[in-house]
Amino acid sequence: MPASPRERLLTKASELFYQDGIHAVGVDRLVAEAGVTRATFYRHFPSKDDLVAEYLRTADHALRRLVDQAEATSPREAAVLAVLDLVGRRVSYAGFRGCEFINAAAEYPDPTHPVRVAVADHRTWFRQRMEALSRAAGHADPGYAASLLVLLHDGGLAAGGLDNPAEVRATVCRAVRDLFSTSSLTPPTVRHGDPR
After folding, report:
1. Do the Cβ atoms of 85 and 170 come closer than 8 Å?
2. Closest Cα partner for 100 from 126, 74, 78?
3. What is the CATH code for 1-46?
4. What's the whole-model pTM score?
5. How far is residue 97's CA from residue 118's CA, in Å, rounded to a whole number?
6. Helix segments in the chain, DSSP class H
7. Is it true that domain 49-184 has CATH number 1.10.357.10?
8. 33-78 pLDDT, tens digit each
């Protein structure tokens, strides 16, 4: 079935916002390239900011699915590495222009703005997911590990647009392996009478 006007607007907005920046893309360009009228635009999105927030929520849902897939196809100890390797794959894509959430945050400095709220929601979810994965992998300090993994994620996405993507991917993966080396893992609890 052909895409609905709302889907066409969201698809085109996602492409243009990522490629050219959010503030650089006006409503006139969006409606022209999506093949809809201004009235249709405002029927689905009361303002451009509503469209921007929906663009970020759509990106968030897509990344959550990728993280779920990476985690589901990896042993527990390797799940964190599989998730962070998504960074390496993303920076290798043609047309890579950084993290859409970091890019949006740079264009919307007010932390109470709905766009920044969408960014904050995504980051909260990602940090919580990294902490849960770190705990499941047996890291002695999963909160610290999660904070470091978020930094690796953000830094990898920033560096991927500036440096050699293959080197960025290798560095991120090595850092994750180092973070989960045996010295950082919680030793098993030995109960009284346990032969171990």
Report:
1. no
2. 126
3. 1.10.10.60
4. 0.84
5. 19
6. 5-20, 27-34, 38-44, 48-72, 79-91, 100-107, 114-136, 142-160, 165-179
7. yes
8. 999 999 999 999 999 999 999 999 999 999 999 888 888 887 766 8
